[in-house]
Amino acid sequence: MQILEGKNIRLRALEPTDLKLLYKWENDSTVWEVSHTLKPFSIFILKQYLESSHLDIFETKQLRLVIELIDTNTAIGLIDLFDFDPFHQRAGVGILINSAENKNKGFASEALEIFCNYAFSTLQVHQLYCNITANNEISLRLFTKLGFEIIGNKKDWIRSKNGWIDEYSLQKINPESF
């Protein structure tokens, strides 16, 4: 089995053919609150992003991989490593499963588990972290199920159309790091 492949999904690099998917997913305003996005992305900007996606993670401090179903080669989401700090050996992680038809099937769990193993074993990351709003119960369950622990609560951190929302900080320490 490949390091970025599980039973049902694989994580793969971005391809130029992913431009339309990125445009659709990045401009889906229903996920802007979670991604802290305030404005749409142009095709031009996303094309530039794709053209630079081959750069080394140590240079860009980020890595975005496509979550793809093995049996159909269908892209169903994205998983991101961001704010990569090689000196302190830590990075943030975020995940998106795009459509409702692919949610609650274990794909996000499988992708996050594969990604954590890759970050810990290949990139030698000591810790991964994420920030999740207190009302995002699905993401909280996903990350805590995979060993992330809530280490803090930022009160009234995120402004939404419905008022202020607390945001939890979660962290997972690499059990093999020294």
UniProtKB/TrEMBL annotation:
Keyword vocabulary terms for this entry: Transferase
GO molecular function, one term: acyltransferase activity, transferring groups other than amino-acyl groups
Keyword Transferase: yes
InterPro entries: Acyl_CoA_acyltransferase (IPR016181), GNAT_dom (IPR000182)
Domain N-acetyltransferase residue range list: 9-171
Pfam families associated with the record: Acetyltransf_3 (PF13302)
Protein name in the entry: Acetyltransferase
